[in-house]
Amino acid sequence: MDELWTDITALFSMANFMVLLRVVIVLAVGWVIGRLAGLVVGRVMRSRGQHRAQLTRRMVRYLVLGATLVAAFSLFGIDVGVLLGAAGIVTVAIGFAAQSSASNAISGFFLLGERAFEVGDIITVGETTGEVLSVDLLSVKLRTFDNLFVRVPNELMLKVELRNLSRFPIRRLDLLLTVAYADDFERVRGILRAVAVDNRYVLDEPKPIIVFTGFGDNGYTVQYSVWVARQHFLEVKASLHAEVVGALQQAKIVIPRPRRHVELSSGAQPLLVRLAPEPAADAPQDT
Protein backbone atom coordinates (compact mmCIF):
# COMPACT_ATOMS: atom_id res chain seq x y z
CA MET A 1 0.00 0.00 0.00
CA ASP A 2 2.82 2.37 0.84
CA GLU A 3 4.56 1.62 -2.47
CA LEU A 4 1.34 2.36 -4.40
CA TRP A 5 0.92 5.65 -2.63
CA THR A 6 4.56 6.51 -3.38
CA ASP A 7 4.00 5.85 -7.12
CA ILE A 8 0.87 8.00 -7.14
CA THR A 9 2.71 10.79 -5.37
CA ALA A 10 5.57 10.58 -7.86
CA LEU A 11 3.12 10.67 -10.77
CA PHE A 12 1.58 13.87 -9.53
CA SER A 13 4.86 15.48 -8.58
CA MET A 14 5.46 19.09 -9.50
CA ALA A 15 7.61 18.20 -12.54
CA ASN A 16 5.03 15.86 -14.01
CA PHE A 17 2.30 18.34 -13.23
CA MET A 18 4.10 21.03 -15.23
CA VAL A 19 4.53 18.63 -18.17
CA LEU A 20 0.86 17.72 -18.01
CA LEU A 21 -0.07 21.39 -17.88
CA ARG A 22 2.03 22.11 -20.95
CA VAL A 23 0.39 19.22 -22.81
CA VAL A 24 -3.06 20.55 -21.98
CA ILE A 25 -2.06 24.04 -23.14
CA VAL A 26 -0.61 22.66 -26.39
CA LEU A 27 -3.76 20.65 -27.09
CA ALA A 28 -6.01 23.64 -26.34
CA VAL A 29 -3.95 25.99 -28.52
CA GLY A 30 -3.82 23.41 -31.32
CA TRP A 31 -7.59 22.94 -31.17
CA VAL A 32 -8.15 26.71 -31.40
CA ILE A 33 -5.63 27.10 -34.23
CA GLY A 34 -7.20 24.16 -36.08
CA ARG A 35 -10.67 25.70 -35.93
CA LEU A 36 -9.43 29.16 -36.94
CA ALA A 37 -7.34 27.78 -39.79
CA GLY A 38 -10.32 25.74 -40.97
CA LEU A 39 -12.60 28.78 -40.93
CA VAL A 40 -10.08 30.91 -42.85
CA VAL A 41 -9.47 28.24 -45.49
CA GLY A 42 -13.21 27.61 -45.74
CA ARG A 43 -13.90 31.26 -46.47
CA VAL A 44 -11.15 31.37 -49.08
CA MET A 45 -12.50 28.22 -50.79
CA ARG A 46 -16.16 29.28 -50.59
CA SER A 47 -15.96 30.94 -54.01
CA ARG A 48 -15.19 27.52 -55.51
CA GLY A 49 -18.20 25.83 -54.01
CA GLN A 50 -19.69 25.33 -50.59
CA HIS A 51 -19.10 21.57 -50.47
CA ARG A 52 -15.45 22.05 -51.45
CA ALA A 53 -15.02 24.67 -48.73
CA GLN A 54 -16.66 22.39 -46.17
CA LEU A 55 -14.47 19.39 -46.96
CA THR A 56 -11.25 21.47 -47.14
CA ARG A 57 -12.03 23.12 -43.80
CA ARG A 58 -12.33 19.75 -42.11
CA MET A 59 -9.13 18.43 -43.69
CA VAL A 60 -7.13 21.46 -42.48
CA ARG A 61 -8.60 21.10 -39.00
CA TYR A 62 -7.65 17.41 -38.83
CA LEU A 63 -4.10 18.12 -40.04
CA VAL A 64 -3.57 20.77 -37.37
CA LEU A 65 -4.98 18.50 -34.68
CA GLY A 66 -2.69 15.69 -35.84
CA ALA A 67 0.37 17.94 -35.59
CA THR A 68 -0.81 19.02 -32.13
CA LEU A 69 -1.01 15.41 -30.97
CA VAL A 70 2.53 14.78 -32.24
CA ALA A 71 3.76 17.78 -30.23
CA ALA A 72 1.94 16.53 -27.14
CA PHE A 73 3.55 13.09 -27.41
CA SER A 74 6.95 14.74 -27.71
CA LEU A 75 6.39 16.61 -24.44
CA PHE A 76 5.72 13.28 -22.72
CA GLY A 77 9.02 11.94 -24.07
CA ILE A 78 7.39 9.48 -26.44
CA ASP A 79 9.38 8.70 -29.57
CA VAL A 80 7.07 9.74 -32.40
CA GLY A 81 9.05 7.71 -34.95
CA VAL A 82 8.48 4.50 -33.02
CA LEU A 83 4.82 5.41 -32.59
CA LEU A 84 4.44 6.03 -36.32
CA GLY A 85 6.15 2.72 -37.06
CA ALA A 86 3.73 0.90 -34.78
CA ALA A 87 0.86 2.80 -36.38
CA GLY A 88 2.10 1.66 -39.79
CA ILE A 89 2.01 -1.96 -38.70
CA VAL A 90 -1.49 -1.51 -37.30
CA THR A 91 -2.54 0.25 -40.49
CA VAL A 92 -1.38 -2.70 -42.59
CA ALA A 93 -3.19 -5.07 -40.26
CA ILE A 94 -6.52 -3.30 -40.55
CA GLY A 95 -6.08 -2.16 -44.14
CA PHE A 96 -8.02 -5.09 -45.52
CA ALA A 97 -10.94 -4.28 -43.24
CA ALA A 98 -10.84 -0.59 -44.20
CA GLN A 99 -10.88 -0.96 -47.98
CA SER A 100 -14.42 0.39 -48.21
CA SER A 101 -13.59 3.49 -46.14
CA ALA A 102 -10.47 4.16 -48.20
CA SER A 103 -12.46 3.82 -51.40
CA ASN A 104 -15.07 6.26 -50.12
CA ALA A 105 -12.37 8.72 -49.05
CA ILE A 106 -10.70 8.62 -52.48
CA SER A 107 -14.09 8.97 -54.16
CA GLY A 108 -14.70 12.05 -52.00
CA PHE A 109 -11.67 13.74 -53.56
CA PHE A 110 -12.98 12.93 -57.04
CA LEU A 111 -16.35 14.45 -56.12
CA LEU A 112 -14.51 17.48 -54.79
CA GLY A 113 -12.74 18.02 -58.10
CA GLU A 114 -15.71 17.18 -60.31
CA ARG A 115 -18.04 19.74 -58.69
CA ALA A 116 -21.18 18.01 -59.92
CA PHE A 117 -23.27 19.54 -57.12
CA GLU A 118 -23.14 21.93 -54.18
CA VAL A 119 -24.54 21.95 -50.66
CA GLY A 120 -28.19 22.97 -50.96
CA ASP A 121 -28.70 21.49 -54.45
CA ILE A 122 -31.50 19.01 -55.16
CA ILE A 123 -30.01 15.83 -56.63
CA THR A 124 -31.21 12.37 -57.59
CA VAL A 125 -28.91 9.43 -56.82
CA GLY A 126 -30.35 6.17 -58.07
CA GLU A 127 -33.92 6.21 -56.76
CA THR A 128 -33.28 8.77 -53.98
CA THR A 129 -34.01 12.49 -54.46
CA GLY A 130 -33.20 15.07 -51.82
CA GLU A 131 -31.37 18.23 -50.77
CA VAL A 132 -27.63 18.00 -50.17
CA LEU A 133 -26.94 18.74 -46.49
CA SER A 134 -23.20 18.09 -46.39
CA VAL A 135 -20.36 16.51 -48.34
CA ASP A 136 -18.08 14.62 -45.94
CA LEU A 137 -14.94 12.58 -46.38
CA LEU A 138 -16.79 9.26 -46.60
CA SER A 139 -20.36 10.09 -47.60
CA VAL A 140 -22.88 12.66 -48.78
CA LYS A 141 -25.82 13.48 -46.51
CA LEU A 142 -29.25 14.10 -48.11
CA ARG A 143 -32.66 15.19 -46.82
CA THR A 144 -35.53 13.85 -48.90
CA PHE A 145 -38.78 15.69 -49.60
CA ASP A 146 -40.56 13.57 -46.97
CA ASN A 147 -37.96 14.75 -44.40
CA LEU A 148 -35.87 11.59 -44.22
CA PHE A 149 -32.11 11.60 -43.62
CA VAL A 150 -30.20 9.55 -46.21
CA ARG A 151 -26.46 8.81 -46.16
CA VAL A 152 -24.98 7.93 -49.57
CA PRO A 153 -21.38 6.60 -49.66
CA ASN A 154 -19.06 8.60 -51.91
CA GLU A 155 -18.12 5.47 -53.83
CA LEU A 156 -21.76 4.93 -54.78
CA MET A 157 -22.04 8.56 -55.94
CA LEU A 158 -19.45 7.83 -58.64
CA LYS A 159 -20.93 4.51 -59.72
CA VAL A 160 -24.59 5.39 -60.27
CA GLU A 161 -26.29 8.03 -62.40
CA LEU A 162 -26.48 11.37 -60.61
CA ARG A 163 -28.91 14.09 -61.71
CA ASN A 164 -28.62 17.64 -60.42
CA LEU A 165 -32.06 19.24 -60.47
CA SER A 166 -30.76 22.63 -59.29
CA ARG A 167 -27.80 23.16 -61.61
CA PHE A 168 -29.55 25.35 -64.19
CA PRO A 169 -32.03 28.20 -63.56
CA ILE A 170 -34.82 26.79 -65.77
CA ARG A 171 -36.25 23.33 -66.35
CA ARG A 172 -38.53 21.74 -68.94
CA LEU A 173 -41.78 20.03 -68.01
CA ASP A 174 -42.97 17.34 -70.45
CA LEU A 175 -46.52 16.02 -70.86
CA LEU A 176 -47.53 13.24 -73.25
CA LEU A 177 -51.14 13.48 -74.45
CA THR A 178 -53.35 11.16 -76.48
CA VAL A 179 -56.04 12.85 -78.60
CA ALA A 180 -58.80 11.21 -80.63
CA TYR A 181 -58.16 10.97 -84.37
CA ALA A 182 -61.33 12.94 -85.10
CA ASP A 183 -59.89 16.10 -83.52
CA ASP A 184 -57.70 18.42 -85.60
CA PHE A 185 -54.07 18.66 -84.46
CA GLU A 186 -53.74 22.38 -85.27
CA ARG A 187 -56.76 23.11 -83.11
CA VAL A 188 -55.26 21.10 -80.26
CA ARG A 189 -51.97 22.96 -80.69
CA GLY A 190 -53.74 26.32 -80.40
CA ILE A 191 -55.48 25.26 -77.18
CA LEU A 192 -52.23 24.07 -75.62
CA ARG A 193 -50.49 27.32 -76.57
CA ALA A 194 -53.28 29.28 -74.87
CA VAL A 195 -52.82 27.18 -71.69
CA ALA A 196 -49.13 28.06 -71.66
CA VAL A 197 -49.87 31.76 -72.11
CA ASP A 198 -52.44 31.80 -69.31
CA ASN A 199 -50.08 30.13 -66.81
CA ARG A 200 -48.04 32.91 -65.20
CA TYR A 201 -45.09 30.65 -64.37
CA VAL A 202 -44.60 29.25 -67.90
CA LEU A 203 -41.80 31.14 -69.69
CA ASP A 204 -42.27 32.83 -73.05
CA GLU A 205 -38.66 32.01 -73.96
CA PRO A 206 -37.81 29.27 -74.68
CA LYS A 207 -41.15 28.77 -76.40
CA PRO A 208 -43.42 25.82 -75.56
CA ILE A 209 -42.91 22.70 -77.65
CA ILE A 210 -46.00 21.02 -79.13
CA VAL A 211 -45.06 18.09 -81.37
CA PHE A 212 -47.06 15.33 -83.08
CA THR A 213 -45.16 12.23 -81.89
CA GLY A 214 -47.01 9.24 -83.37
CA PHE A 215 -50.08 7.10 -83.86
CA GLY A 216 -51.49 5.26 -80.84
CA ASP A 217 -54.09 2.55 -80.46
CA ASN A 218 -56.88 4.96 -79.55
CA GLY A 219 -55.60 8.27 -80.98
CA TYR A 220 -52.52 10.24 -81.96
CA THR A 221 -49.95 11.25 -79.35
CA VAL A 222 -48.71 14.79 -78.70
CA GLN A 223 -45.71 15.92 -76.69
CA TYR A 224 -46.42 19.13 -74.78
CA SER A 225 -43.31 20.70 -73.19
CA VAL A 226 -43.04 24.04 -71.38
CA TRP A 227 -40.15 25.83 -69.68
CA VAL A 228 -40.41 27.10 -66.11
CA ALA A 229 -38.08 28.63 -63.54
CA ARG A 230 -36.50 26.06 -61.27
CA GLN A 231 -38.18 27.34 -58.12
CA HIS A 232 -41.67 27.06 -59.68
CA PHE A 233 -41.23 23.61 -61.25
CA LEU A 234 -43.23 21.61 -58.70
CA GLU A 235 -46.03 24.17 -58.62
CA VAL A 236 -46.42 24.11 -62.41
CA LYS A 237 -46.18 20.32 -62.49
CA ALA A 238 -49.10 20.12 -60.05
CA SER A 239 -51.31 22.63 -61.86
CA LEU A 240 -50.57 22.25 -65.57
CA HIS A 241 -52.13 18.79 -65.91
CA ALA A 242 -55.47 20.02 -64.57
CA GLU A 243 -55.33 23.14 -66.77
CA VAL A 244 -54.71 21.07 -69.91
CA VAL A 245 -57.53 18.63 -69.15
CA GLY A 246 -59.95 21.48 -68.38
CA ALA A 247 -59.08 23.37 -71.58
CA LEU A 248 -59.46 20.27 -73.78
CA GLN A 249 -62.79 19.35 -72.20
CA GLN A 250 -64.10 22.90 -72.61
CA ALA A 251 -63.16 22.78 -76.30
CA LYS A 252 -64.86 19.37 -76.70
CA ILE A 253 -61.55 17.68 -77.50
CA VAL A 254 -61.84 13.97 -76.79
CA ILE A 255 -59.19 12.29 -74.66
CA PRO A 256 -59.85 8.64 -75.60
CA ARG A 257 -60.01 5.88 -73.03
CA PRO A 258 -57.97 2.72 -73.54
CA ARG A 259 -59.96 0.05 -75.41
CA ARG A 260 -59.24 -3.59 -76.17
CA HIS A 261 -60.94 -5.63 -78.90
CA VAL A 262 -60.87 -9.38 -78.28
CA GLU A 263 -61.57 -11.88 -81.08
CA LEU A 264 -61.94 -15.65 -80.69
CA SER A 265 -60.46 -17.89 -83.37
CA SER A 266 -62.72 -20.33 -85.24
CA GLY A 267 -61.20 -23.32 -83.46
CA ALA A 268 -61.83 -21.99 -79.97
CA GLN A 269 -64.74 -23.07 -77.85
CA PRO A 270 -67.66 -20.63 -77.91
CA LEU A 271 -67.87 -18.22 -74.99
CA LEU A 272 -71.18 -18.72 -73.19
CA VAL A 273 -72.78 -15.73 -71.54
CA ARG A 274 -75.77 -16.31 -69.30
CA LEU A 275 -78.01 -13.39 -68.43
CA ALA A 276 -79.99 -13.58 -65.21
CA PRO A 277 -83.69 -12.61 -65.62
CA GLU A 278 -84.77 -9.34 -64.09
CA PRO A 279 -86.76 -9.78 -60.85
CA ALA A 280 -90.47 -9.12 -60.94
CA ALA A 281 -91.72 -5.83 -59.67
CA ASP A 282 -93.50 -7.44 -56.72
CA ALA A 283 -90.64 -9.75 -55.83
CA PRO A 284 -88.98 -9.13 -52.47
CA GLN A 285 -85.66 -7.29 -52.65
CA ASP A 286 -82.53 -8.43 -50.84
CA THR A 287 -81.51 -6.26 -47.93
Give the H and E element order. HHHHHEEEEHEEHEEH
Distance separating the two termini: 95 Å
Estimate the helix proportion, in percent.
40-55%
* CATH topological fold name of the largest domain: Alpha-Beta Plaits
The domain tally reads 3
Please give the count of helices. Answer: 8
Low-confidence stretches: none
Mean pLDDT, rounded to whole units? Answer: 77
CATH architecture level-2 label of the largest domain: 2-Layer Sandwich
What structural class do the secondary elements suggest? Answer: alpha+beta
The radius of gyration is 35 Å
Strand residue percentage: 15-25%
Key features of this structure:
alpha+beta, single chain, SH3 type barrels, 287 residues, Alpha-Beta Plaits, 3 domains, five-stranded antiparallel sheet, three-stranded antiparallel sheet, 8 strands
Task: Please tell me about this protein's structure.
Helix 2 runs antiparallel to helix 3. The protein has 287 residues and is of the alpha+beta class. A five-stranded antiparallel beta sheet has the order 4-3-2-1-5. A three-stranded antiparallel beta sheet has the order 6-8-7, with helices on one face. The mean pLDDT is 77. The N and C termini lie far apart (95 Å). Helices cover 48% and strands 18% of the residues. It contains eight helices and eight strands. The longest helix is centred in the first third of the chain and has 32 residues. The relative contact order is 0.07. It folds into three domains: 76 residues; 51 residues, SH3 type barrels; 81 residues, Alpha-Beta Plaits, CATH 3.30.70.
